[in-house]
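Progress note, sequence design subtask.
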């Protein structure tokens, strides 16, 4: 079986196609013939050696999002059949490994059906960022009518946060650079403010007491913090632990904890089918062109996800 991964950590050109032994579905698992894999910023950490490899052996395979067709069903698996189209979350450097593979073994709870009317390429952009958005909203625990501020709203995680927050009845203040204003406005936020150093002041101009919650996908950290009211909730996506000031509750969202959250993943399927959530593919590339996808992603400005195809 072909995989895309690294034997030595480095830049995008460290990625290469490798041949490895084909895995098979065990009890409580299915095997997915992968057709599409989303390329995300988190993938660069596996490629560059930014994560603990644990007991994993090279080639180290990145990727947390895959979609394809079930081609093996293990013992004890009910309700799933060969030929079902599914989208799945994968855990690099774990027992089943990352998603840049031709065949992915997925335990029950780590996959859901591809949303009706959606291609497998579009579906591959949903699991990891969708689950991160869902968990972020859960951690904040905001009630309908409360105010959520979102940095990095033009990115895919930001897209999903805005859309899911609006469905939950929140008042959403989202940021956007001028070139992204039309995209962010199309997501339905109540207010769009300029991205960058003036974000907190712009939020306070709309909500003088400050927002009730903030999800900082742009990693502004202390710079965005004044946008929050005293006692508000701050969700960090890269493990920032906060400052402890003003009674603010600092939370870190770790999508690895959602690996077997099948009900939530199916909820994302339903959100796509209702038109609440909009999968966004920037461009499709053959899996062997993963180095190019990483280079272009790291250059910035991509809206949606590059999707690798087998």
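Output:
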């Amino acid at each position: 079986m072909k995989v895309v991964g690294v034997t030595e950590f480095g830049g995008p050109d460290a990625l290469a196609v490798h041949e490895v032994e084909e895995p098979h579905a065990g009890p409580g698992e299915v095997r997915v013939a992968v057709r599409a894999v989303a390329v995300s910023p988190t993938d660069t950490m596996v490629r560059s050696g930014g994560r603990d490899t644990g007991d994993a052996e090279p080639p180290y395979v990145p990727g947390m999002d895959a979609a394809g067709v079930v081609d093996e069903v293990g013992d004890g698996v009910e309700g799933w059949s060969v030929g079902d189209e599914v989208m799945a979350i994968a855990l690099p450097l774990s027992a089943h490994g990352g998603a840049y593979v031709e065949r992915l073994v997925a335990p029950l709870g780590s996959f859901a059906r591809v949303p009706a009317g959606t291609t497998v390429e579009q579906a591959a952009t949903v699991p990891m960022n969708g689950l991160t958005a869902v968990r972020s909203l859960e951690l904040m625990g905001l009630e309908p009518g409360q105010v959520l501020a979102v940095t990095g709203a033009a990115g895919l995680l930001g897209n999903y946060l805005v859309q899911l927050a609006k469905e939950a009845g929140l008042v959403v203040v989202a940021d956007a650079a001028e070139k992204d204003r039309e995209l962010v406005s199309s997501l339905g936020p109540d207010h769009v403010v300029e991205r960058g150093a003036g974000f907190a002041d712009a939020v306070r101009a709309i909500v003088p007491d400050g927002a009730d919650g903030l999800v900082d996908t742009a990693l502004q950290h202390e710079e965005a913090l004044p946008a929050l009211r005293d006692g508000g909730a701050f969700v960090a996506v890269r493990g920032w632990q906060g400052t402890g000031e003003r009674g603010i509750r600092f939370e870190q969202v770790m999508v690895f904890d959602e690996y077997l959250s099948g009900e939530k993943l199916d909820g994302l399927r339903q959100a796509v089918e209702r038109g609440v959530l909009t999968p966004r593919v920037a461009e499709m590339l053959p899996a062997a062109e993963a180095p190019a996808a990483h280079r272009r992603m790291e250059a910035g400005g991509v809206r949606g996800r590059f999707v690798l195809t087998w």
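Helices lie at 43-48, 120-123, 127-140, 156-167, 181-186, 199-206, 262-273, 290-298. Work on this subtask will continue into the next period as scheduled.
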